[in-house]
Write a structure and sequence with these properties.
The chain is an all-beta fold and about 500 residues long. It folds into two domains: about 325 residues, Glycosyl hydrolase domain, family 43 (Tachylectin-2, Chain A, 5 Propeller); about 150 residues, Exo-inulinase, domain 1 (Jelly Rolls). About 0% of the residues lie in helices and about 50% in strands. It has no helices and 34 strands. A six-stranded antiparallel beta sheet has the order 23-34-25-30-31-32, with no helix packed on it. The chain has a six-stranded antiparallel beta sheet with strand order 24-33-26-27-28-29, with no helix packed on it. Strands 4-3-2-1-20 form a five-stranded mixed beta sheet, with no helix packed on it. β15 and β16 form a beta hairpin. Bound molecules: beta-D-fructofuranose. The site of beta-D-fructofuranose has 12 residues, from β1, β5, β9 and β13. Keywords: Glycosidase, Hydrolase.
C-alpha cells in the first residue's frame, strides 16, 4: 500500500519560521505535529526523548517517532526521526525503550531496544533497536513481536517495558480499550500474556492508553515501596477530554500469574488540568546522576482540541519534566507531581517580591512574566478565596486560585486570550480538594502558551494551555479580606536551546 494515505492533503506543508506561542523552556519539535512522549531512556550520558511526530503536517499525520537528545534534560538537540511508517505494518504509535544490559535479546549487550505499536492491519506490538547509542535504528525483521491474534481487541497499544527483578523477567504493560494487560518475556522477543487489570477500577468514560508501572518508595523510604500504575484515559479526564489517572497497589504472582492488584476504590488524577496527557516515566534513570528518582513528561494537550490549537509551523508541546513521588498527606497516599529539580538551573533574575506587589492591585511586571516562575503563599485561615490574576495589556486574563467553601483549586482560562478556536477549550477547570487548607502555596510556571500550577508542593498539579494575544505582563494577587500573601517571588525563566 502506498504511504500517501497518511498525508492529509488539506494542510499546507509546515515551514520553520518562529511564532509567538513557541515556548521558551518546554520541548517542541522544530516543525510539525508532536504528541505523546515515547521511549524516554537514559543511556551512556544522554537522555533520549522520542515522541509521536509528523514534520510535514501540523495535525495527526504519518505517525513516526521524532527524536531528541539532551545531556541535562533541559537543552535538546533534535535528531532525525528514529522510525517511520512502513508499507507492511503502517504507522509507529506510542511505546518505550529499554537498555538490554544482559543481552536478553541476543542482539548485543547494551542494545537500546524499543517497542511501539504498529497499526496495520490491526494494532500489534513491534520492536526496533539501535546498536550505536541511539543514532540509527533498525526495525526487527520478524515484527510484530506480539501479533493481534484472532479474538483480540482492535485497541491494543502503547507498550511500556520494564525489568522485573523479582522474577528476572521483562514485563510489558499494554493498553486495551479499557484495561491494562501485562505480558512477560525472558528475551524481549517472545511474550506471554500474564493478566489484565481494569474492570471495576478507575475512570472508564473513555479508552485507556499509555500505561506505566513503577515500584516507588513511600515518603522516600526505600524499604517501604508499593507499585503505582499510571494510565491515561480519553475522554473522561477530570475536566473533560484527556486525563491521567493512577492506581496504588501491588504487582505480584497470584494463582500462578503476575497481576496488578489494588484496594483503591476512588479515581486518583495525576494532574487535574486539561493539558497533561500520555505521560510516562524515564527508563534507566538509575544510571544517571538522578538515581532512583521518577521523572516523567507528558504531552501538554488534550485530544478535544489538539488539532486546532492556534499555532502553525509547530503544533504540540511537552509539559515540564516532572518528578513523581509517593507522599502521605493526612494518612492519604498521593502521587505528587512537581517540576524536576533540573529547572532550578533556568530560574533567573527576580522580577518582583512581596515588597513590590499589593493585594488586589495589578502590578506591571513587563513581558518577562511570559516566561517566569511565580511562588506565592497565602494564609487562608481568615479568608474563603485566594487567587492570582495573570493578564496582558489587552485585558486577557488567567485566574488561578483556591476556594475553601467550594473545596476547589482552579485555573480559569475563560478570558485567557485566543480561546474560541475550538469548542471545549475555554473553561474553568477544577481540582477537588480532599480537605480544608489554611495555608496555600502555589508554584506557577508560565511559558508562552501555558501555565503549570503546583499547589501545596505538588499535592495538586494543573497544567493548562493558554494563548494570550499579547505576552502576559500584569500580576495581581486577590483575596476577599485584607489578608496578604505571606510570600511572593517572581523570577524570569531562561530559555532552553533546541537545536
Ligand atoms: C495517545 C494515543 C496512543 C497512540 C498514539 C497515536 O495519545 O492515542 O494510544 O499510540 O496516541 O499517536
Amino acid at each position: 500500500m502506498s504511504l500517501d494515505h497518511y498525508v492529509s492533503s488539506d494542510v499546507d506543508p509546515v515551514t520553520t519560521s518562529p511564532e509567538k506561542y513557541r515556548p521558551h523552556y518546554h520541548y517542541t519539535a522544530r516543525k510539525g505535529w508532536l504528541s505523546d512522549p515515547n521511549g524516554m531512556v537514559y543511556f551512556d550520558g544522554e537522555f533520549h526523548l522520542f515522541y509521536q511526530h509528523d514534520d510535514y503536517v501540523n495535525v495527526f499525520g504519518a505517525m513516526s517517532w521524532g527524536h531528541a537528545v539532551s545531556k541535562d534534560l533541559l537543552h535538546w538537540q533534535e535528531l532525525p526521526k528514529a522510525i517511520i511508517p512502513d508499507e507492511h505494518l503502517g504507522m509507529c504509535f506510542s511505546g518505550c525503550m529499554v537498555v538490554d544490559k544482559n543481552n536478553s535479546s541476543g542482539l548485543s549487550k547494551n542494545t537500546l531496544v524499543g517497542f511501539y505499536t504498529s497499526e496495520l492491519p490491526k494494532q500489534q506490538q513491534s520492536m526496533f533497536y539501535s546498536l550505536d547509542n541511539g543514532r540509527t535504528f533498525r526495525k526487527y525483521n520478524h515484527n510484530p513481536v506480539i501479533p493481534n491474534s484472532a479474538g483480540m481487541s482492535k485497541d491494543f497499544r502503547d507498550p511500556k517495558v520494564f525489568w522485573y527483578e523479582e522474577q528476572s523477567l521483562w514485563i510489558m504493560a499494554l493498553a486495551g480499550p479499557e484495561r491494562i494487560e501485562f505480558w512477560s518475556s525472558t528475551n524481549l522477543i517472545d511474550w506471554q500474556l500474564q493478566s489484565w487489570f481494569g474492570e471495576g477500577h478507575g475512570a472508564h468514560e473513555g479508552e485507556w492508553e499509555c500505561p506505566d508501572l513503577r515500584y516507588m518508595p513511600i515518603d522516600g523510604d526505600s524499604n517501604n515501596c508499593v507499585w503505582v500504575l499510571i494510565v491515561s484515559v480519553n475522554p473522561g479526564g477530570p475536566n473533560g477530554g484527556s486525563g491521567t489517572q493512577y492506581f496504588i497497589g501491588d504487582f505480584l504472582e497470584v494463582d500462578g500469574k503476575l497481576r496488578f492488584i489494588t484496594k483503591q476504590t476512588d479515581v486518583k488524577w495525576l494532574d487535574w488540568g486539561s493539558d497533561n496527557y500520555a505521560g510516562v516515566g524515564w527508563t534507566n534513570l538509575q544510571d544517571s546522576s538522578f538515581g532512583n528518582r521518577v521523572f516523567s513528561i507528558g504531552w501538554m494537550n488534550n485530544w478535544t482540541y489538539a488539532y486546532k490549537t492556534p499555532t502553525n509551523q509547530w503544533r504540540g508541546t511537552m509539559t515540564m519534566i516532572r518528578e513523581l513521588k509517593l507522599e502521605t498527606f493526612y494518612e492519604e497516599l498521593v502521587l505528587t507531581c512537581c517540576p524536576a529539580p533540573i529547572y532550578k538551573e533556568l530560574v533567573g533574575d527576580e522580577l518582583a517580591n512581596l515588597d513590590n506587589v499589593s493585594l488586589n492591585k495589578p502590578t506591571n511586571i513587563g513581558s518577562d512574566l511570559s516566561a517566569s516562575r511565580i511562588q506565592i503563599d497565602f494564609d487562608t485561615t481568615q479568608t474563603d478565596h485566594v487567587c492570582v490574576e495573570l493578564s496582558n495589556t489587552l485585558g486577557q486574563l488567567t485566574r488561578i486560585g483556591y476556594c475553601k467553601s467550594d473545596g476547589i483549586f482552579y485555573v480559569d482560562r475563560r478570558k485567557s486570550g485566543n480561546q474560541d478556536f475550538a469548542e471545549g477549550f475555554s473553561g474553568i477547570h477544577i481540582a477537588k480538594a480532599t480537605r480544608t487548607y489554611n495555608t496555600i502555596t502555589m508554584d506557577i510556571f508560565i511559558d508562552r502558551c501555558s501555565v503549570e500550577v503546583f499547589f501545596n508542593n505538588g499535592e495538586y498539579a494543573m497544567s493548562e494551555l493558554i494563548f494570550p494575544e499579547e505576552p502576559l505582563s500584569i500580576f495581581k494577587p486577590v483575596a476577599q479580606s485584607s489578608i496578604n500573601p505571606t510570600n511572593v517571588n517572581i523570577r524570569k525563566m531562561r530559555e532552553i536551546t533546541r537545536l
